[in-house]
Amino acid sequence: MDQISTFAASPYAVRDLQLFRDADDPAVARALAPCAVVRVAAGQRVEDGLRARLYIVLSGSLEVAPDAHSGDDSGVTRVMPGESVGEQAVLDDAVNLAAMTALEDCELLVIEPELVWQLIDRSNVLARNLLRLLSFRVRAANAQLRRRQKLGEFYRQLSLNDGLTGLYNRAWLGEMLPKLAMRARQDGSPLSIVMIDLDHFKRFNDTHGHIAGDAALSAAAGVIRDSLRPSDFAVRYGGEELMAVLPDTPLSLAEMVAGRLAERLRTALVFPDMRLPLPHITGSFGVASLAAGGDEHALMAAADAALYRAKQAGRDRVSV
Ligand SMILES: Nc1nc2c(ncn2[C@@H]2O[C@H](COP(=O)(O)OP(=O)(O)OP(=O)(O)O)[C@@H](O)[C@H]2O)c(=O)[nH]1
């Protein structure tokens, strides 16, 4: 980064600089006249030392990564001729942590912080342009934060949903069931679960193939999801093991819900457009409610035991 001239000796004029747009005061031109114009070769970093300066690109372009120390490259911006970088660091009197690299051979005007402040005192136009620029940057930063939050939420949702069926997955259950159990204990409200295991699913796979098995799982998941209230949750917590989580639901009502699920599963279409006799699926259902003083582990164990009884009793049925 070598000084090649001063602003006065360069071919550039004050009107080329966005920050000084409409500042046709000759005093501004005089103040900028001795400022250094430096050349930065393509690929070279703008070495700022520990001093924040204002840089204005006169020719070429710079790439600016917000914070060289955070390794965050998501907010990289390109600074074009007439645009400035470093004004915020100058105003904050902070070290400029932005990593500035020349994308092509550049000429930059360098304005020392003391002069920036003198010019702000002298020129209302500059102060107004600076405020406008900072307001634009704050808006851009906020928009980027919102985008990142949305993206984070999207990936979080993705990690809590099962890819095949779209139901909540085991990770969701591990995170949410303890919370739902705690809320139920605090409110004194009932919490029930229905564990569902598809019957002879190995045989179904062996007979109809794994792809048909996947379709059957999706059909079963759809039946469960569409049969629940909006406040209930449908979960796939294992291979062919599904669950309905029913807040504010006592055991007797959960048993009725399970009966309805069993009936709908029995008549569900696995392949609506298949001409061959339809393979059908049934499930075994184990129902349990959170006991007074019990926790989510005891609840799962009780539902598991009920499910075992439903299997033992001949499958395609509900056990409590
Ligand atoms: N197609 C398909 N099959 C799966 C998936 N996850 C688990 N399975 C199958 O589900 C079957 C479960 O078999 P088992 O646990 O022996 O139980 P079952 O054959 O259903 O017998 P019962 O539960 O006793 O009625 C296995 O053959 C698994 O391969 C899946 O995502 N897709």
From TrEMBL:
Every GGDEF domain range: 189-320
Keyword Transferase: yes
UniProt GO molecular function: diguanylate cyclase activity
InterPro entries attached to this UniProt entry: cNMP-bd_dom, cNMP-bd_dom_sf, Diguanylate_Cyclase, GGDEF_dom, Nucleotide_cyclase, Rev_trsase/Diguanyl_cyclase, RmlC-like_jellyroll
Assigned keywords, A-Z: Nucleotidyltransferase, Transferase
Annotated Cyclic nucleotide-binding domain residues: 54-137
Enzyme class label: transferase
Coiled-coil zones: none
SMART domains from the UniProt entry: cNMP, GGDEF
Pfam families attached to this UniProt entry: cNMP_binding, GGDEF
UniProt catalytic activity: 2 GTP = 3',3'-c-di-GMP + 2 diphosphate
EC assignment: 2.7.7.65
PANTHER family in the record: DIGUANYLATE CYCLASE DGCM-RELATED (PTHR45138:SF9), REGULATORY COMPONENTS OF SENSORY TRANSDUCTION SYSTEM (PTHR45138)
Protein name as it appears in the record: diguanylate cyclase
Native organism: Massilia agri
